[in-house]
């Protein structure tokens, strides 16, 4: 029985370095409990002094429920992969502490019955049950925790695979050996001075310790996840709190070399990275006259008792970066050529056309007028292209009153009589694109520009409220939005066979989309109705006021 102390010490020594991982500290305490259990039983059996025997027995009886508690806490952390709280751990040992304290006084035979005594041969005679407190703690409470732990292990073995399942089965084998040894003891198949359970408890951890040293402990990541970690194309680093690389996947090893484990991550990156962009979120990597770009994502990991680290993922964005540079260059070319050179040339053409129109008559004057109109239209399209560029230059939204944007648009637009534009806007707070006023301005301009008929243009801009949203409505009495314009917006693309007449509605569409809104159109016999629905901010709304202003 004294030899049972040896594997307990060996297991504790082997696992001490992993004590912060979930479950490890409880397995160490469980194995230590088995060793102390065997040591105490052997000692009070050999000692002939009744007083010393009874004193050692008081320590012995608390080892049995202590073993049950440590096995239960081990099972909990092994299965659920996180530590039990300190409060739960203390509460689990509290009944054992009460048993230990009262065992020295035994008030009203609460712990031991009168049959509990030391015989002339120095052996401790203890009835199978004992006092009510001893029955509750060592029998009911202890066995309940053992059964709960066994149930958790069985469930874990059924739903897992690989190394984790093997270690779960090892723990179930330990449970089975303990149950079998207890049956042997109860059946009195071994001498009264020999406790088979404590010895089996100590030695059963030997082959489990072998599995721990070979495969690691608490290796709860399934094989599929391990394979994914290795085969993913992004370079992944696992970094400890000191900043050292403790693990990498194959992609990181191929990119930076196999000898980077153990090195500081800053050193690893500095040896290869030539520049960074945007607070080190993008890395430029050069090797063998090849330049590659990587985006960097870092997340914190917490595992076990005080174990923290980081996972760094480098994603290759070389193709995306190349595409981004090409689009930026294209934007510069189009901005310079289309918005400046062509616009300036068209202004010249428009000026000469006006001169020809004024100096001629008949067909020549009519042709010159058409040239002037088309040139002016293209110049306006170029100006709208500049507005679109300004729309895409903002990545964030702003919170403000919807009426503020409407007022800004109303001040910028001049209405020529007899056309009218009236406003009936509720004062509500919304979160929109910083240039939301351009969308309102474009809708008004579009309705006025494309109006024709005997009646003057009449445009009404109003709002409709619900508890969660506000809808901006722009209605006109014009001929109606062409069906091709509606189809292009719904399809979200333009083709050779189906395309809009301009880019104004695209400007509106992009602003609304970047405001997390919804754009809908409705064409009726009386004109066109365009609605922009925006979510209202979840805050106290200001008093709704209606304002009607006619601009002429």
From TrEMBL:
Highest taxon above the source species: Archaea
Record-linked PROSITE patterns: HIS_KIN (PS50109), PAS (PS50112)
Gene3D superfamilies named in the record: Histidine kinase-like ATPase, C-terminal domain (3.30.565.10), PAS domain (3.30.450.20)
One Pfam family recorded for the sequence: HisKA_7TM
Organism name: Haloferax larsenii
CDD domains membership: HATPase_RsbW-like (cd16936)
GO molecular function: ATP binding
Protein name: ATP-binding protein
Database matches in SUPFAM superfamilies: ATPase domain of HSP90 chaperone/DNA topoisomerase II/histidine kinase, PYP-like sensor domain (PAS domain)
Membrane-traversing stretches: 24-47, 59-76, 88-105, 140-158, 170-187
Location of the PAS domain: 226-257
Residue ranges occupied by any Histidine kinase domain in the UniProt entry: 337-538
The entry's keywords: ATP-binding, Membrane, Nucleotide-binding, Transmembrane, Transmembrane helix
């Amino acid at each position: 029985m004294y030899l049972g102390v040896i594997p307990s010490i060996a297991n504790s020594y082997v696992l001490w370095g992993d004590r912060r991982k979930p479950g490890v500290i409880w397995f160490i305490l469980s194995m230590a409990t088995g060793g102390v259990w065997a040591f105490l039983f052997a000692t009070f059996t050999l000692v002939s002094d009744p007083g010393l025997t009874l004193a050692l027995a008081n320590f012995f009886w608390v080892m049995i429920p202590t073993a049950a508690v440590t096995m239960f806490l081990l099972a909990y952390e092994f299965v659920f992969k996180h530590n039990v709280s300190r409060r739960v751990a203390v509460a689990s040992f509290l009944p054992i502490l009460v048993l230990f304290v009262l065992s020295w006084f035994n008030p009203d035979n609460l712990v031991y019955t009168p049959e509990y005594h030391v015989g002339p041969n120095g052996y401790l005679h203890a009835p199978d049950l004992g006092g009510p407190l001893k029955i509750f703690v060592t029998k009911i409470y202890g066995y309940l925790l053992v059964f709960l732990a066994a149930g958790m292990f069985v469930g874990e073995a059924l739903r897992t695979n690989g190394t984790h399942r093997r270690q779960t089965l090892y723990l179930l084998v330990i449970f089975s050996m303990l149950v079998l040894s207890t049956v042997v003891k109860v059946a009195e198949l071994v001498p009264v001075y020999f406790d088979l359970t404590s010895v089996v408890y100590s030695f059963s951890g030997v082959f489990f310790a072998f599995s721990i040293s070979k495969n690691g402990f608490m290796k709860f990541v399934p094989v599929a996840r391990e394979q994914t970690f290795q085969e993913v194309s992004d370079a992944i680093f696992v970094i400890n709190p000191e900043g050292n690389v403790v693990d990498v996947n194959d992609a990181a090893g191929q990119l930076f070399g196999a000898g980077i484990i153990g090195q500081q991550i800053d050193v690893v990156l500095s040896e290869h990275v030539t520049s960074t962009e945007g607070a080190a979120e993008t890395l430029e990597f050069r090797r063998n006259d090849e330049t590659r770009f990587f985006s960097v994502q870092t997340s914190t990991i917490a595992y076990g008792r005080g174990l923290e680290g980081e996972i760094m993922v480098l994603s290759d964005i070389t193709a995306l970066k190349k595409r981004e540079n090409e689009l930026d260059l294209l934007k510069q070319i189009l901005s310079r050529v289309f918005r400046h050179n062509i616009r300036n040339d068209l202004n010249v053409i428009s000026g000469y056309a006006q001169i020809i129109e004024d100096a001629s008559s008949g067909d020549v004057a009519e042709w010159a007028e058409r040239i002037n109109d088309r040139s002016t239209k293209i110049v306006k399209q170029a100006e709208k292209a500049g507005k679109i560029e300004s729309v895409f230059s903002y990545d964030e939204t702003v919170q403000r009153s919807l009426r503020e944007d409407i007022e800004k648009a109303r001040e910028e637009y001049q209405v020529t009589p007899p056309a009218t534009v009236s406003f009936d806007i509720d004062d509500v707070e919304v979160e929109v694109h910083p240039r939301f006023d351009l969308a309102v301005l474009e809708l008004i301009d579009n309705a006025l520009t494309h109006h024709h008929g005997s009646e003057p243009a009449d445009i009404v801009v109003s709002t409709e409220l619900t508890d969660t949203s506000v809808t901006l409505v722009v209605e006109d009495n014009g001929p109606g939005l062409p069906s091709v314009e509606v189809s292009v917006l719904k399809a979200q693309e333009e083709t050779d066979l189906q395309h809009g007449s301009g880019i104004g509605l695209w400007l509106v569409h992009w602003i609304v989309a970047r405001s997390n809104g919804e754009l809908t159109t409705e064409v009726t016999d009386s004109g066109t109705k365009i609605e922009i629905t925006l979510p209202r901010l979840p805050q106290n709304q200001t008093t709704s006021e209606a304002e009607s202003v006619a601009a002429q």
